[in-house]
Sequence to fold (1408 residues):
Amino acid sequence: MAEITPGQAYGFFTDTSVCIGCKACEVACKQWNELDGHDPIFGDGYDNTGSLDSQNWRHVKFIDNVPNETMGTGAGKAWLMMSDVCKHCQHASCMEVCPTGAIIRTEFDSVFIQPDVCNGCRDCISACPYGVIGHSEEKGVVQKCTLCYDRLQGGMEPACAKACPTESIQFGPLDELRQAAQQRVDALHSQGVSQAQLYGADDSVYGGLNAFFLLMDKPEAYHLPNAENAVLPSRNNLGGYLGAALTAVLAVFGGLIAFRRRREPAVETPAEVPAAAPPATVESTVDEPEPEAGEKE
Amino acid sequence: MTNHWRDIRHADLILVNGANPAEAHPVGFRWLMRAKLDRGAKIIHADPRFTRTSAVADTHLRIRTGTDVAYFGGLINYVLENNLYHKEYVEWATNAGFVVTADYSFSDGMFNGFNQQTGTYNTAAWAYVMENGQAKVDIANPRSVLNLLREHYKRYTPEMVERITGIPRDQFLSVAKLVGEMGRPDKVMTIVYAVGLTHHTTGVQLIRSAAILQLLLGNMGRPGGGMNAERGHANIQGNTDHAISWDILPGYLRIPAPGQKNIADHLTASASKKLLPNAVNFLGENYRKFLVSLLKAWYGDAATPANEFAFDYLPKPAANASWISIFDQALRGKMEGVILSGMTATSIGPDSNQVLQALSNLKWLCVMDPFRTTSSEFWNAPGMDPAKIQTEVFMLPATHWIEKDGSFTNSGRWAQWKEQVLPPEGESRHDHWVLAELFDRVKGFYQQQGGKFPDPVLRLTLPYQDPRKPELDEIAQEINGKSLATGQRLATFADLKDDGSTTAGDWIYTGAYPQSGNLMKRRDGVQDQAKNDPTGMGFYPNWAWAWPLNRRVLYNRASADPAGNPWDPKRVGIKWDAAAGKWVGDVPDYPGTAAPGPTAPLPFIMTGEGTGRIFSNGVADGPFPEHYEPVESPVQNPLHPQVSATPAAFLYDQKAGRPNRFGTVAEFPYVATSYRLTEHEHYVTQNVEHLVQLQPEAFVEVPAELAKEKGIATGDHVRVSSKRGKLEVRAVVTNRLGPLQIDGKKIYQIGIPIHWGFVGINTGQHWLANALTPFVGDASARTPEFKAFLVNIEKM
Amino acid sequence: MSLAEPAQHFVRAPGWTWYILFYFFFAGLSGGTYVIATLLRLRGEPTDEPAARLGCYASFATLLVCPVMLILDLGSPLRFWHMLWNTTPGDTGPIFKYWSPMSVGAWGLLVFGALVTVSFVDTLVRDGKLGWLGWVARLLDGALGKVVMIAGALFGLFVAGYTGVLLAVSNQPVWSDSWTLGGLFLASGMSGSVALLLFLLRYRAPAEISAGPLTVSERLYAVLELALVVIFAITLVPAGTFDLAFGFPWILLWLVALAGLAPGIGGLVTSRLAVTPEGITVPVHSASAVRSVAVPVLILLGVLALRAAVIFSIE
Ligand SMILES: Nc1nc2c(c(=O)[nH]1)N[C@H]1C(S)=C(S)[C@@H](COP(=O)(O)OP(=O)(O)OC[C@H]3O[C@@H](n4cnc5c(=O)[nH]c(N)nc54)[C@H](O)[C@@H]3O)O[C@H]1N2
Ligand SMILES: Nc1nc2c(c(=O)[nH]1)N[C@H]1C(S)=C(S)[C@@H](COP(=O)(O)OP(=O)(O)OC[C@H]3O[C@@H](n4cnc5c(=O)[nH]c(N)nc54)[C@H](O)[C@@H]3O)O[C@H]1N2
Ligand code: SF4
Ligand code: SF4
Ligand code: SF4
Ligand code: SF4
Ligand code: SF4
Ligand SMILES: [Mo]
Fold:
C-alpha cells in the first residue's frame, strides 16, 4: 500500500462480487476501534449483526436469492453479500444538518464525526439516508466509520480493508479506485454478468460516494436508495418553511378577525364590561372565511 | 496439499469437493479468487449446500452427501469414454499399463479377498503380474490397469451419477465437458478438498477417486494442478507429519506390527518394493536410513547395531488405536485414564452421548487446555449426574499457541516459525513442559521401582538444556537431525545413514534447521518479488521452508514431459536445462542431474512403481474406489443394493456387543451433514466475545420446502434427532439446501453447524452437534462419518 | 395505501425520546400564547388586556420548560451550547447554519426566549409587581413595546412552527415526505395555546371577558389544523408512507388529535345553527367554555397526540 498523503481523496471500492461474507471486516473494525459490540442476539443465522450503528461500523448484508432448483450459479449473483459502511458522501446529509459543526471533511476527504464536538442531538441520524450513524448511550455522542482517521494519519490503511481476505474491500486514492472498479465491471459484463453495476462511483448519488460499491443487482436490492431517491434533507427547507409561513399568515389573519374590536369606542373599565358582544359580530363570526381558506391550501 | 495455497492461482479449472474454503479457509481462499479474477478460471463447487463458497463459484452442484465417488467415477468414465485423458502422461507417469493378476475381481459390490469373519479385505490379493522380479507392463492387455479401470467405471454413466448424487444429468455433463478439456497439456485443473470428503466411511476412496481423475488428466505434479487438501488447525499438517495418528511414526514411517522381530522384518512389511528397473523407489530404498536415524535420535547411544538400534523399544500395537477406538476401549471399561491436550473430546464426537459415557467410565481424565472445555466439564453436561460420575478430572492450564513460539506447518507443507505473541497467563504452562516433567517423573518411578520393561523410558534421550523445560528451538534442531560424527546438523535427508552415524527426529524435516540456521524463519516474500520469486511461479524459495527439501510442488517431475520440457511452457514446474545438465525451477522431485531419456528414472520417485498409482493395494477397502452408501443412508445403493454400504467399515458397537445405534430411514427420514461456519473455530471461539456476537446461537439449516411442510420458519425452535441423540435449536429456513431427487425419490438434507456446546460465553447453547453423529469411521483411516447420517426434524 | 413508485427510505430512526415530544409541545404553546397575547393587546379591546397579560405569563411559563426538555434529550446535555458555539479546533466561533432547522431553531429559541422574558417582566410590572422595575414598563409603553411584541410574535410563530420543518429536513419516511409539518405544528400550536388560555381564564376573572374572541379563534385554528391534517395525509400517499403514519397504533393517537379539534369545529357548526336575530351566542359559548375544564384539556391532549403520532410513527 503506497504512501497515504493528506490532501488527497481516499475511499473504498467495495466489490460485492467477490465478498464471501466472512465478516473479518466487521471484527477488524471492532478490534481497532475498540468497539464492544452488542449483546449476542440471533438474527437470521448468517446476519446476526443486523445493521450499522454505534457499535457496528461495518455490516455485512446477506441477501439470499438462491433458487430452489438443484443448481444455483454462484458468481456472486444468487446469494448477495455486501459489506456495508459509511459512504463518506460528497454531499453528506449528516454533515448538512449537524448543528454543532461536529461533522467535518478531513484532509483525506472522508466524513468524520468529532467525538468531542458532537453533543448527541442525533439530527444526523435522521438525516443519513443509509442508516449509518448510531448513538452511543455510554459515550453520549453518535458514532460511525471514521475511515480509520487515526490509521490514515499514521500512514496505515483502514483495518477492515487490511483484514479482507478477498480484496472485496479495496482502499486507496479515489481516482485509482474508480479505474479499478470500471475495469472490474467491464470484465464482469464481458463474462455476461450484465446486472453488475457500480454504485456511487460517479456523482449520480450524493455527488459521488468516497466509499462506493460494485453491486450484482440494483441498489434497492441491497437497501440502497437509487439515484432518483438519493436526496438531501435540505430539499425540504423551502417547502417546509413556506408551508409554515403560509399557515402563520392565516393564523395571524384568523387572530385579527377573532380579536377585532367589537364596539366603538372602547370601554375604559374592562372590569365592568358585561360579558356580552353585539349581534353583528355573531353573523360574521359564523361565516368566517377560514374554512375555505383552509381548503384553499 | 501436493501443491500449495498460492499455486492455486495457476489453475484453469478448480473443482472444490467436500470443502467450503470461503468459510473454512477464507484467507487461503484468496488464491481461488485470484485464479478467477486474474485468469478467468472457473470454480465448480460440489456441495450438499449452497455455501458462501458457492456464492462466488461459477457453478454449484448440489450433491448428496457421501456420493463423490459416483461424481468422480462419472467424470473418470466420461474422460475415458471420450478419450480425453492425457495419453502420453498416463502411459509414462501412471501405472495404467501394469497388468493385474487374475485373482483381482469385482462383482456385486465386492472385491476379491474379503474375509467374512474379520470383515476385512486381504489387500495382498490385489497385485500386479510379476515377470522375473519386475511388474509386467502392457497397456493393451485386457488385464491392464487402464482396461480394468474402464471396466470398473463404465457403470458410472451420467444417468447413474444422477441417480446416486442427485446432480441432474445435463448439469453433470456441462461440468464434465469443462473437466474433459483439462486433459490437454496446455490446461490444468486443481482439486481442492477437505473434510467433506474425509468424514465418511468411504473417506479415503472418495479422495482416491479424485486423485485417479487427476492422474488421467495429467494434472499431478503440475503448477495449478494436484490434489490439495485444505488442512485443519493452523498446525494440523505439522501434527500429521510428526505422527499424531496412531499407525505411523514421524515422517510417515509405519508403526511396527506385532511379530516384527527386527528392522528387516519391519522393512519387508512396510517398505515399498522396486517394481521396475528404472523406478527410483526412494522411500523403499531409504526407509532403513530414516528409521535408524529416528531410533538414534530417540535412543542415542542405547541404539546400537547390536540391538537393532533399539527397534525393540518401539511399541508394536496389536489393535487399532484411532480416535474412535480409544473411546470404544473406554466404553468397554478397558481404559484407566486419558490425557486430552488441545482437543475437546466431548464436543468433537462422534456420538457425544456415548463419548460422555466413555469418559464416565474412566478412573481419571486429564485436560491440558487454556480454557475450560466440554471435556474438562463433561461431568456437568446437561443430563449428566455429577454424583454418579467417579472419574477424577485434572485440569492443567496450558499456554495457548499464541503464548509460545514454534512452527506451524500449513496445508502447503510450509513450516513457518512464529514468535511468542503474548506472555503465558497465570499458572499456565507450555504443553511440552508439562509433558517433559510428566515424563521425567515417570522416569523417576521406573528408576526407583524398575518395572516390566523400563528401557524404552530410561534410555530415551532428552538432549535439552533443561530436560523438564525443553525449548521448541531445541526440539526443532533434534527433529532436523545431525551427523553424530561431526555434530553438525544436516541439510538434507539424502545424507542420512542406516549405520547409526546420523539422527533425524523426522526425516522429512531434515533440512528445515541445518547448521546454517532455522530456515523456517525465512521471510523473503512479496516485498521484492523479482528477487524472491525468480521463476515468477510463486515458489518464493526463501519464504519459510517446505518439506521435503523446500520443494513447493510434489511430484513436480511430472510437470514436464519425458523429454524434460514443461507440458505448458507458461506454467513451468521444473524443466531440464541441457546446457547446465540439471533440472531447474522448483526443487526437483527427482534426481537433480538425471538427464531425460529412455532409461531415465521414472517420474514418481517415491513409489515402487515409479509412477502414480491408479490401481493400489495401499487401502483397506478396494484397489479402485467404489461408491458405497453411508452407513446411515436414505436409499439402497443403486449400483448394488445387496452391498449397499462398505463391507469394510469397522462397526464398533456391534463388535463390542453394544446395542445398535444406527437409525433407519423409516424413523429418521432426512439426510444430515455437519460442518463449520466462518464465524467460529470449532468450540474454542465460544470464548471470544466478538465471534459469539457474530454467531450467537446454535441453529440448523432446513430446506424451505420441508420447512413449509412442517410449518417451520427461520428463528423457530426445532428438535433434530437421530438414533443417538437430539438437538433443540433454532431453524434457518433456506433454499440453499435442496431438495434433491435421488433414484426417483425426493430427499431432503439438513445442515448442522458444529460450533456450540455447554461451555463458553453463551452458555445457553448447550447442544452438541455430535449428539447426532454415528460411532463409525472410514475402513482405512477410521475417520468418523461426521458428514452423512439420518435424522428427523420437528417443530417445537 | 401507496402509489406506483414509493419513495425509498433506508434510514435508521434517530431515537428521539418523549423529551423531544414535550419540547415540541411546549414550544408550540409558548410561541402560540405569545402570538395570541400580542394580537389581543395590539388588536383586541382594551378589555382584552388582562387576557393578553395572561398570555405573556403563559408564554413565559411554557417557555421555561423548552430548553430543559431540549437539553435533557441530548446525549451530552452539558454540551448544549455547542449548538451555538462551534468548538472544532481551528474553527471555533459562533455557528449558524440557515439550512439546518436545528441550528436555526437553537438561535430562534434564544432570541424568542429573550423577548418573552422582557414581556414577562414588563407584564409583572404592569400588574404592579416588582415596582422597582417600573422603568421597564415605561420603556415599553410606547413604540418600543409594540416592536418587542411584534418581534416576539414573529419569533413565536417560528418557534411554534420550525419544529415541524426540523422533522421534514431529514431523510425519514413520513417526516421528509411532506412539506406540511411546519404548518401543521404551528396550527395545532395555536389552537393549543388558545385552549390553554381559555383554561387559565378561570384564574383571572377580568380576563374572562376575552373568552368570546378566544373561542372564536379556537374554532378558526381548529379548522386550519384539520385542513392541514388532511393535506398532510394526502401528501404521504404518493410517498407510500401513509400506512406508516396512520396505521395501527398511531391511528389511535390521530383519533385523539381529531377529538381535540371537535370542540372547535363542533362549536363552529352548532353556533352557525344557533344563530338568532340577536344571535347572542358567543357569550353563552364563551361562558361555557370558561366553565368547562374538559374542553381545553381535550384540545391540549389533541395537540400532544398529534405530535406524538408524527414523531413516533417512524421510530
Ligand atoms: N471458520 C473455521 N475455519 C476452519 C475451522 C473452523 O472450525 N472454523 N476448522 C478447521 C479444520 S480443523 C478443518 S478440518 C477444516 C475443514 O474445512 P472444510 O472441510 O471446508 O469444513 P466443513 O465445513 O466441515 O466441510 C466442508 C463442506 O463439506 C460439505 N460436505 C459435507 N458432506 C459432503 C460430501 O459428501 N461431499 C461434498 N462434496 N461435500 C460435502 C459441507 O456441506 C461443507 O460445506 O476447516 C478448518 N478451518
Ligand atoms: N460433527 C462433526 N464433528 C467434528 C467435525 C465435523 O466437521 N463435524 N470436525 C472434526 C475435526 S476436522 C476437528 S479438527 C475437530 C476439532 O475439534 P477440536 O480440535 O477439539 O476443536 P478446537 O475447539 O479447535 O479445540 C482446540 C482446543 O485446543 C486448545 N488449545 C489452543 N491452543 C492450545 C495449545 O497450545 N495447547 C493446548 N494444550 N491446547 C490448546 C483450545 O483452547 C481448544 O480447547 O472436530 C471434529 N469434530
Ligand atoms: S453515509 Fe451517512 S453518515 Fe456517511 S457520510 Fe453519508 S450521510 Fe454521512
Ligand atoms: S449528533 Fe452530533 S454529529 Fe450528529 S448532528 Fe448532532 S451534533 Fe452533529
Ligand atoms: S475504515 Fe476503519 S472505521 Fe471504517 S469500517 Fe473500516 S475499520 Fe471501521
Ligand atoms: S472481509 Fe471482505 S470478504 Fe469478508 S465479509 Fe468483509 S468484505 Fe466480505
Ligand atoms: S483463521 Fe488463521 S488459518 Fe484460518 S483462515 Fe484465518 S488466517 Fe487462515
Ligand atoms: Mo480438522
Summary: The CA atoms of residues 219 and 264 of chain C lie 4 Å apart. The beta strands of chain C are 85-86, 93-94.
